[in-house]
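Listing S7. Sequence submitted for prediction.
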Amino acid sequence: MKIAVTYEDGKVFQHFGHTEQFKIYEASEGKVLSTQVVDTEGSGHGALAGFLRERGVEVLICGGIGGGAQAALAQAGIKLYGGVSGEADDAVNAYLAGELGYDPNVHCDHHDHEHGEGHGCHGGDHDCGGHCGKN
């Protein structure tokens, strides 16, 4: 099984559509067999589901994620665990142990609006109100 995590500096990156890297874990029988960090090469929100599907990913662990990206992942057959924060390796080990804390209703509300300059889940002139996985 392949598990992808939105990734930055060892941690779960908090905005799926802006992630520049995924850490992809190959796991079997509850153990991580290998890992690989891959660049998204500038792929945005909609293209990322295909990017993961092409690499055989079955599970995605991330922070915040918008509704459109959630739908694209579902269509690609990728199971989503959003609203996760902390160390990426710890999150995958918790998932494999059946102990991952996640938010089944995670949603970045700004995806319901038109995109404008300066929007993002990390402040600027936009605040997700805690819906981007940052507590």
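Caption to Listing S7: primary sequence and predicted structure tokens for the chain studied. The chain has one domain: 2-112. The longest strand covers residues 31-39.
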